[in-house]
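Example (one chain per record):
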Amino acid sequence: MIGIPGYVVQGRLGAGGFGTVYRAERTKDDQVCAIKVQTEIRSSLGVRLFANEIATMSHLSHPNIVSFIEVITHESKTHLVMEYCDGGDLRGLLDDYLEAGQGIFEEDVQSIFLQVLLGLHHCHSHLKQGSIVVHRDIKPENVLLTSGGIVKLADFGLSVTLKRRKAHATSIVGVRTMLPHISASLRLTVKDKRLRCAGGTEAVQEIHAGHPYGTAADMFSLGCLLYEMCTFDIPTVHTNDQGTMTIEGSIPAEFSRGMQDITCHLLNPELLTFPTTGEWLQDIFSISEAPR
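Predicted structure:
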């Protein structure tokens, strides 16, 4: 087991491409923490991602974002000390439900969605010299849980800080944030007691040409997260010979119409029409009152 000054390492929690996360107890006050230890990274990209996560987390403070505690350099390695979440991650929770052959109660889906939205709202509203943070990697593995029912957004390695709210980034990071970068139209229909959402897009090459995006990329990824909680699947993407993409999916009829509508609106690939986190928060509590 590794040694970290000021901490007693109790076991490994997980590992990624650029770091291994351990559970540890701080000796001065017995606080349980999670410590991400930078692996032997030979690529400049890995170094930048780890440094970016540290810089971003150190400026964010919100109940629905994993808390930054400190950074330790020991034996030429960087150690990021963070808040420990004792409930695992959302991926593990979904896998448990899937293995048991059960669906998640809508009330639990609502709670997780709302808490992630609140954490995102802080990122998108966070002002430090007029800057905001776009997460760019929202997925079940990066949504952590506590035994007390608190949900926290984690892993800011791929995040980007934009100087103003209307600023846009252009780098490509992954499918969940890649899909909405190109303009499209959304059609909503009810078929066979299931609400279907689909959008036809322009040529996918526009993404690789540096088509700009901003906080709307996170909103689309949040839609994918919500869809996966409802269906244990992700929306289907079809691409024809002309490079036109269609995003399709269906939400089970047992979910309220309000939940179905919110999911489909978040999956709208029309980047420029996305409501902000603040606008969603103004309407989100109407979900439970929507007709089924």
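Caption: Residues 90-289 form a domain with the Transferase(Phosphotransferase); domain 1 fold (CATH 1.10.510.10).
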